[in-house]
Specification:
The complex is a heterodimer of chains A (110) and B (347).
Chain A (H helix, E strand, L loop, with lengths): L20 H14 L7 H14 L3 H13 L4 H21 L1 H11 L2
Chain B lengths: L3 H4 L6 H8 L8 H7 L12 E5 L25 H12 L5 E5 L9 H11 L4 E5 L4 H4 L6 H7 L3 E5 L5 H8 L3 H14 L11 E5 L10 H16 L5 E4 L6 H9 L3 H10 L3 H5 L6 E4 L5 E2 L2 H5 L17 H5 L10 H4 L12
Parallel strand pairs in B: 1-2, 1-7, 2-3, 3-4, 4-5, 5-6
Antiparallel strand pairs in B: 7-8
The chains are: A mainly alpha (110), B alpha/beta (347).
C-alpha cells in the first residue's frame, strides 16, 4: 500500500543535498552544531526535539527522536512528560486565544 | 522463564546462530570494516586479562543474556580446571582476573578459587561480575560483601536503569528491589565510598534494540538518582552495547529488529573503538577450560585460532600472542559509537 509517509525515507534525509548541495551542507552543519553539548546537554536537547516533533506532528522526527532520547538514557516517563509539555503548549496556545474571543464577546454584548 | 537450551530453541544450536550471524550487513562484513581500518587480521596486543566463566548456572534469567544462563544450566567449572588456571597465574603476566558466569558465586569452588589466587598474589586485580540478587538469594551468600572486601575485589554489577520498571523488564520481576538492597549491603561495608579503595561499578546496557547513552552523562544521572532516591553510592558506570547473540539475538529476530539493529551497529562503526577492542588483551576461559578470544566467542564456541593452545592445560602464551582473533558480525557490537567492552566504552 502506498502512503505519503514511508519510514524508509527517513534514511534518505541525508541525501537531500542531491538537489541543492550547498544549502543542505549548511543546514546539516548547523543541525549538527545545534545538537552538540552546550549550555543545554545533548540529552535535554533530544527531549526538546522529541516534544517539538510531536508539536509539529512529524512522523520521521518522532521515530528519530524516540530512538535518540532512548539512546541518551531517557526512560518512557521522561519522554511522555516531554510530549505533555508539547501538548500543554499546543492546548494553551488555543486556549490563550480565547481571550480574544472573550474580548470580542464583551465588545459586542450589552 | 527457561533458558533457550532448556526450551530446545533453534538458537540454542550454535550452527544456526552462526548461520544467522554469517550474513553480511548491506553486503559488508566486520572483516571488511577492519580491513578498511588497517586492523585485519585482528591481532592481540598482550594478554593482561583472564576473563573466566565460572559456569552458566545463575539465579536469574535475563532476557538479553548472551550466556543463556539460568537455574536450569548445570555447566560449572571444576576445581581441577581452576587448578590449571592457577598454574598459569603463577607464571606471572596476568594483571586482572575477571570472574563471570552465570552467577560466579554459585560455583561451590568460588571462594576457594579466590583465596588461592590471593595466595599467589596480592597484586592481581580481581573482578567479580556480581548480579547483586545472588547476595540475597540464600543466607549462605549474605556475607559476600564482607568476602569481597576481605580479598579486595572489584565488584561490577548490572543495573540497567535506576527505575524498577526498566530493570525488571530486562532482568526479571523484583530484581530492581533486590538489587537496591544488595547495593546498600555493599555500601555498608565500604564499597562505592570515597577513600575505601573498594570499587563498586555498575553496568548499563540498553533494554532494547538501541545503543547505549554516553557513559559520562549517564553516570552522572545514575549517581544523582541512586543517591537521591536510595542513598546509594558507586564509583563508575560502564555502558555496554548488547551484542546480537543468544537471547538478545532471539529478541531481535522475534521483534523483527534484527536488520535495523545490525545496520545501526554497522553505521556506528568507530575505528578508534575497533583498535581498542578488549579481545586484544584478554583471554576468555570457558567453564570447561577451553580458551576463547572473548566471552561472546566463547558462547559461539569459537575457540582461539591457536591450534596448539586451545585449552588451559596446553597454555602457550607465545602461540596465543601470535594468533589471529576470530571475528564475525556480532563484533560490530564492540565497535559501535563509543565502543563497548566489559569495562564500558573504549573510544
Amino acid at each position: 500500500m502506498k502512503t505519503y509517509y514511508n519510514p524508509e525515507d527517513l534514511k534518505k534525509f541525508g541525501k537531500i543535498g542531491e538537489f541543492q548541495k550547498s544549502m543542505a551542507d549548511k543546514f546539516f552543519d548547523y543541525y549538527g552544531e545545534v545538537f552538540q553539548e552546550g549550555a543545554l546537554t545533548a540529552r535535554e536537547k533530544s527531549l526538546i526535539a522529541l516534544a517539538v516533533a510531536h508539536a509539529i506532528q512529524c512522523p520521521y522526527c518522532i521515530d528519530a527522536y524516540t530512538v535518540d532520547t532512548m539512546e541518551k538514557g531517557c526512560d518512557e516517563e521522561q519522554m511522555m512528560e516531554a510530549v505533555h509539555v508539547a501538548a500543554a503548549i499546543r492546548g494553551g496556545a488555543s486556549l490563550v486565544h480565547s481571550t480574544q474571543m472573550m474580548n470580542k464577546v464583551k465588545e459586542i454584548s450589552m | 522463564m527457561k533458558s533457550l537450551k532448556a526450551q530446545q530453541h533453534p538458537l540454542s544450536k550454535i550452527e544456526y546462530e552462526l548461520e544467522v550471524l554469517d550474513t553480511p550487513i548491506k553486503g559488508i562484513s566486520f572483516a571488511d570494516k577492519l580491513a578498511n581500518s588497517n586492523l585485519f587480521p585482528l591481532s592481540p596486543t598482550q594478554i593482561d586479562i583472564f576473563q573466566i566463566n565460572m559456569g552458566k548456572m545463575c539465579n536469574q534469567v535475563c532476557k538479553h543474556c548472551h550466556v543463556d544462563a539460568g537455574p536450569d544450566r548445570k555447566e560449572i567449572m571444576t576445581r581441577e580446571t581452576m587448578q590449571l588456571i592457577l598454574e598459569v597465574i603463577k607464571k606471572g603476566g596476568i594483571k586482572t582476573v575477571d570472574l563471570t558466569g552465570g552467577a560466579p558465586e554459585m560455583n561451590p569452588e568460588f571462594r576457594w578459587f579466590i583465596e588461592e589466587i590471593r595466595k599467589i598474589s596480592s597484586e592481581v586485580h580481581i573482578i567479580v561480575r556480581c548480579n547483586l540478587t545472588i547476595i540475597l538469594a540464600n543466607p549462605k551468600y549474605h556475607d559476600l560483601p564482607e568476602f569481597y572486601k576481605k580479598h579486595h575485589i572489584e565488584v561490577v554489577s548490572s543495573l540497567p536503569y535506576f527505575t524498577a520498571v526498566k530493570t525488571d523488564s530486562q532482568r526479571g520481576d523484583g530484581v530492581f528491589d533486590k538489587s537496591i538492597k544488595a547495593l546498600k549491603m555493599l555500601n555498608e561495608v565500604g564499597y562505592g565510598a570515597e577513600g575505601t579503595g573498594l570499587q563498586l561499578n555498575l553496568v548499563y546496557n540498553p533494554a532494547g534494540a538501541f545503543l547505549p547513552a554516553s557513559q559520562e552523562g549517564l553516570e552522572l544521572e545514575f549517581k544523582k538518582r541512586l543517591k537521591n532516591s536510595y542513598d546509594i553510592t558507586f564509583n563508575a558506570l560502564y555502558t555496554i552495547t548488547n551484542l546480537p547473540i543468544s537471547r538478545f539475538l532471539e529478541y531481535l529476530l522475534r521483534s523483527e529488529n534484527y536488520d535495523s539493529y545490525m545496520e545501526k551497529l554497522l553505521d556506528a562503526y568507530n575505528p578508534v573503538a575497533a583498535a581498542n577492542v578488549m579481545c586484544r588483551n584478554t583471554i576468555s576461559v570457558g567453564w570447561d577450560g577451553y580458551l576463547y578470544d572473548c566471552d561472546f566467542n566463547q558462547m559461539l564456541e569459537l575457540k582461539v585460532a591457536s591450534p596448539t593452545s586451545q585449552h588451559i592445560a596446553d597454555w602457550n602464551k607465545k602461540s596465543l600472542l601470535e594468533r589471529e582473533i576470530i571475528v564475525k558480525q556480532h563484533c560490530f557490537g564492540c565497535t559501535a559509537g563509543a565502543g563497548s567492552s566489559c569495562g564500558g566504552a573504549t573510544a
